[in-house]
Each structure stands twice: as structure tokens, then as C-alpha cells.
Design a protein that fits this description.
The protein is of the alpha/beta class and 378 residues long. It has three domains: 2-214, Rossmann fold (3-Layer(aba) Sandwich); 217-294, no CATH class; 296-377, no CATH class. The chain is 57% helix and 9% strand. The protein has helices spanning 2-17, 24-36, 50-60, 76-80, 85-89, 117-129, 160-164, 180-191, 204-214, 220-235, 242-258, 272-275, 280-293, 296-319, 327-348, 352-377; strands spanning 40-43, 61-62, 65-69, 106-110, 131-133, 138-140, 145-150, 168-171, 202-203. Strands 3-4-7-1-8 form a five-stranded parallel β-sheet. A two-stranded parallel sheet has the order 2-9. The longest helix has 26 residues, at 352-377. The termini are far apart. The mean pLDDT is 93. The protein binds adenosine-5'-diphosphate and magnesium ion. Residues 20-23, 46-52, 149, 175, 183, 186-187, 190 line the site of adenosine-5'-diphosphate (ADP).
């Protein structure tokens, strides 16, 4: 049962990315948004597949969809439905919401940051509270996820609240040069209709059940590391709003679910790449931090093992040196540098396992350096 459900989530991602070149990560972010019931914004230059991905996601989900391209001149009626004139005559303020955003479970809004102030306020409550409030009436709406697209990160202060509502922000990059040939073939296949009208894979029911699984994921194993990452981000000037700090847990749990696990692992923290950064520069910064920090224990132990192996190999060689050998000078220099590196690792790590191992390796290197110096005396 659960297995089947997880299988369908996997198939959804696979089918979503299928026609496109290098859009697996985008498919995963969209899937995360959908299983966690959160909003996703794709940001990138025109022609990078943003609309095509959203359109395909709509085809692969059996849900009530609403799609719209916003311009500066879009009126609230176009999104939320026109006012009912007959009701208005009787002094009642009612919108005819049929087939409009208030009836949608999944919405795709293109050029989202074109929202003018009237629309903006209605978006904020729809996205956060799932309530349509237009100054006169309040209607509960079934909106589950909004997928949005834009060419850039909004600078305007009045759009920041809207931007903060998107738990997932993904920067879509053009396809890299080594894949241009593949791109030509892929677009040709898309144009000739190879991928049209796919069978829906997920129903809203499936999505709700996946969402229940998300909340069953055990997050204890990663909480301490998450707090450490937040501290590093803040230190480096990457500020995450309190709302996002908490909601990131959903993203982490969602990532575990998409990998078929009910327990979060350090690797799931890579999802912060979509949650923590505000813009593309911060994205690179965050990603570098994540690469550094995630599974740091294993990485450090691996590095120490390599250092140790090199030191032992060098020792073998040095033990057999009988005459003055110019390589001794190189060895001395390089192992003095290595010693600094290992000493720093032992000093800076907050990880007892790494520290203990580093100290062991350090004493081996000290012995080696003494040995080299003895050989100089000969
Ligand atoms: N990575 C890609 N792989 C395959 N086709 C692509 C890719 N990027 C763009 N295309 C093609 O270009 C078309 C235009 O993309 P579109 O989704 O309209 O871009 P955007 O919404 O980002 O401006 C897509 O429908 C698709 O045919
Ligand atoms: Mg587009």
C-alpha cells in the first residue's frame, strides 16, 4: 500500500522529467511541493522549460487545476471570478468562482511577481490560510499547492511577503553546452507530439496520503545538524525567516519520503538548497556549505584515512633511504603542511570521532617528520 504510493510518487517525477533534458531536479522540487502541500516558484530566464514543466505536472495529476499568466494589468476578476451582478443588485457581494483560482487544488501562476496590490493581498491569504478574502467575504478554498514561475527574484519590498510564501524556490539554469545536442533531439520529439496527453499518475487522494506519510517521518536524527546549519547560514549572512526555519522540516521529511524512507538522513538536508537561499548568489553559498557539512564525519574520516595511507607509504620509502636523498626535503615540506591540516581538523571539529582519529593520525605524522629529520642528520 505505502510501497505502491511511494512508487507512484517516483513515477510522477520520472514522467515529469522524461521529455526534458536535465530537468530531474526541477521535477523533484515540484514533487516535494506537491507532497508537502507547499508552494513552489521556479525562477529562470525565458525558455528554460518552466511553463512546460508546470503544464506537464498538471497533466500528470488528476486534480482541479487553474493556470494563468499574470501581467501588470490582470484584474482580480480574471483570477478569482467576476462579481455576480444579480447578487450585487440585492446588495450581496458574491464572486462566480467557477473554474477560477478559488476552486483549484493545484494552481500554476506564470509571471507571478507581476501581481498588483489588489491581487497580491488576495494571494497572501489564499496561499497562507487557504481563504479567499477580498474585503467583503471570506471563502475557504481547496488550494493545495501553487506552482509559480518568474524570470527573476522580486526586489520590490511589497512583494517580499509573497516571495516568502514559496517554501521552495528553485533557480532553473539553461542546459549546459555538453547537452545541446540532446536538447535539439528532445525539443524535436516534444514538437512532434511524442509526449502529449500522458496518463495521470497521481490523484489528489494519493497526494493527501503521501502528505500523511510526510508527517510520519522521524526527524530526530537530523535536528541537531539542522540547527548547526542554521547557525552557519546566519553567520554567513544568509537570513532565513522564522516561518521558513520551521517549515524546512516539511521539506526534509518530504525528501525522505521521495527516497522511500520514513527516517530522515543527513542527505535530506540538501533540500535546504531550495529553502534557505533568497537569490542565486545565496544558492551557491548555501550549496557550498551543505557540501561541506553534510556527512562531514564520513568525509573527514575518509580524508584522514588517505593521509594515513600516504604517510605509511612515505615511511616505507624513507626507512630504506641510506644516502642523502633530495626527496626528503619534499617529504618534509609536504608532511609539515599535512600536519597543519590535521591539527586544524582536530582543533576545529565538534565531532569526537573525528577528533580522536585526527589526533592518532597527527602522532603518526609527527613520528614521520622526526624520522625524516633523523635521516637528514646521517
Ligand atoms: N531542458 C529542456 N529540454 C527539453 N525541451 C526544452 C528544454 N528547455 C526548453 N525546452 C523547450 O522549450 C519550450 C519553451 O519552454 P517554456 O516552458 O515555455 O519556457 P519558460 O516558461 O521557462 O519561458 C518548451 O516547451 C520545450 O519544448
Ligand atoms: Mg513560461
Amino acid at each position: 500500500m505505502v510501497e505502491q504510493l511511494l512508487g507512484r510518487a517516483g513515477l510522477f517525477m520520472e514522467k515529469l522529467a522524461e521529455p526534458f533534458v536535465g530537468r530531474e531536479e526541477e521535477a523533484r522540487v515540484i514533487a516535494l511541493g506537491i507532497i508537502t502541500g507547499e508552494h513552489v516558484v521556479l525562477i529562470g530566464e525565458p525558455g528554460t522549460c518552466k511553463s512546460a514543466l508546470a503544464r506537464r505536472a498538471a497533466d500528470l495529476i488528476n486534480a482541479r487545476f487553474f493556470k494563468y499568466l499574470l501581467t501588470k494589468f490582470t484584474e482580480p476578476d480574471e483570477l478569482f471570478g467576476p462579481l455576480d451582478i444579480n447578487a450585487l443588485k440585492q446588495g450581496r457581494y458574491v464572486r462566480i468562482t467557477r473554474n477560477k483560482l478559488p476552486e483549484a487544488e493545484i494552481a500554476f501562476i506564470d509571471e507571478i511577481f507581476n501581481a498588483n496590490s489588489a491581487i497580491l493581498n488576495m494571494f497572501l491569504t489564499i496561499m497562507n490560510e487557504r481563504i479567499l478574502y477580498d474585503g467583503y467575504s471570506e471563502i475557504k478554498v481547496p488550494l493545495w499547492s501553487m506552482i509559480a514561475a518568474s524570470n527573476n527574484v522580486p526586489d520590490e519590498p511589497e512583494l517580499q511577503a509573497l516571495y516568502d510564501r514559496f517554501l521552495y524556490r528553485h533557480f532553473v539554469m539553461p542546459v549546459s553546452e555538453d547537452k545541446w545536442k540532446e536538447l535539439l533531439d528532445a525539443i524535436w520529439d516534444i514538437e512532434r507530439g511524442l509526449y502529449q496527453n500522458p496518463e495521470p499518475i497521481l490523484s489528489m487522494d494519493d497526494i493527501r496520503r503521501l502528505n500523511q506519510l510526510v508527517f510520519r517521518v522521524s526527524l530526530e536524527p537530523i535536528k541537531e545538524k539542522l540547527l548547526r546549519l542554521y547557525a552557519i547560514f546566519e553567520d554567513q549572512g544568509i537570513h532565513i525567516t522564522d516561518r521558513r526555519k520551521g517549515k524546512a522540516l516539511k521539506a526534509i521529511a518530504g525528501s525522505a519520503i521521495l527516497d522511500g524512507r520514513l527516517t530522515a538522513k543527513e542527505e535530506d538536508l540538501y533540500v535546504l538548497k531550495h529553502v534557505a537561499p533568497r537569490d542565486q548568489d545565496e544558492m551557491s553559498q548555501v550549496y557550498a556549505i551543505l557540501l561541506d557539512e553534510i556527512r562531514a564525519t564520513e568525509k573527514h574520516l575518509k580524508e584522514l584515512a588517505e593521509i594515513e595511507a600516504n604517510a605509511r607509504e612515505a615511511k616505507e620509502y624513507i626507512l630504506h633511504v641510506t644516502d642523502f636523498d633530495p626527496r626528503l626535503v619534499d617529504y618534509l615540506r609536504s608532511f609539515e603542511a599535512v600536519r597543519e591540516r590535521v591539527r586544524k581538523m582536530a582543533d576545529e571539529t565538534s565531532d569526537e570521532i573525528v577528533r580522536k582519529r585526527a589526533l592518532d593520525v597527527l602522532s603518526e605524522i609527527n613520528e614521520l617528520i622526526d624520522l625524516i629529520k633523523q635521516k637528514f642528520m646521517m
